[in-house]
Amino acid sequence: MEHQELPAAVVNLLLGDGVVTPKAIETTALEMVRKDRLRAEQKADGTVTVRPLPRKARPASMRPFEKLLVERVRHRCGNGVDRVPIGALGPGDGDEFWVWWRGFQRSVREEAMALKLIRPARERQTTWLLRCALFAVAVGLFCAVLPWCPPSAGGFLVIAMQLSVMVVLRWPPFRLTSDPRLTAAGRQAAREWRNDTDAAEHRLPKRQVGAEGPESALPVREPRQIWSSYGRSWHVVDTEPLDPPRWGHTWQFVILSLTVCAVSIAAVMASLYGHISYGGVLAATPVLVGALLWVLWLPARRRVQAVPAEMRFHGVVICRWDYHTHYDDPLTDITHYCCAIEDPASHRAWSFEVHQWRRPMFSGETNPELKDRFRVGDVVDVHCSPRRRKVYRISVVEAVPR
């Protein structure tokens, strides 16, 4: 097969050295538009939207990953909208995207394997076998060379061997989890595509949300812009992170002021009674440092004060995800169920932890009731504190079909 005839998703896999990146969603959607498998429309602001074809007009044969993309488009065309921007097909709605994304990646890899462009990832057993064989060869060479070395060189050889063992333990050879590897035909096709004039449209932007895995696509640590269709119109929502600001709180200013005063008084007393030179400089230094920290604290304080302390509103869930933490005493696993909820009045979203599920470590217990209580698109009534990222009361007003 000529490299120009390869599906866009397979080209994305080749350019990613066996890894499918979220850029494949955009290129596959545009390719399906050119092949009349999706309908497209360009809005006045340049946004390209797509929608599935009517059932009677759908082509009889589509690749598995193309069927999954149609399924994704249909899933995002909820809440009274019949089309979806291509950018909204990517990672934005949290866990619901990543469940679909794993199937999409697997379908693209199977397509590439059928074309003999990649081979399966190396198994863990093979990795450990290769590591053990390499270790046995290294030990054999060391035992064979050591008797022939003079005493002085033997000491250096032993030290070098110990350092090598430390390096190997820190950076073991042969990665334990490897991605599918390109075959010779795959490497040749990848070289051809990298030199092709159309290669730029397949490259992943450096700052694309979700390019580094699920956690990079969720509003956990950093603000995100997430697509929302609430109100039957697609728009981008500025979503605040789950963690509240760490700088700009009143208690920090109090501790800073007390510390500066205590250090300044101690420096003045030491200069008066201890006959220390440059006592004035010692007393002025903490004051200058405190003033500098206060200048840095003040803008952060203004940002904290700009966040409402308490709100009540009807909002919509635009992102849902969970993450896990562990405690050693007692041995406990905690699953944190989180949502990002849009306030329609301001087109701004706040992230909250709405549930916790505690269970003994390694128990394998699940709680589907908590996991499925909220879905992306649910309209909820919220009483919360955005400043503290705390929910006082939340209830579903209008649920999307389960």
TrEMBL record:
The keyword Acyltransferase does not apply. The chain crosses the membrane at residues 128-148, 154-171, 253-272, 278-298. Residues 6-195 form the Predicted membrane protein YciQ-like C-terminal domain. Keywords: Membrane, Transmembrane, Transmembrane helix. Pfam families: DUF2207_C. The keyword Membrane applies. InterPro entries: YciQ-like_C. This is DUF2207 domain-containing protein. It comes from Streptomyces pseudovenezuelae.
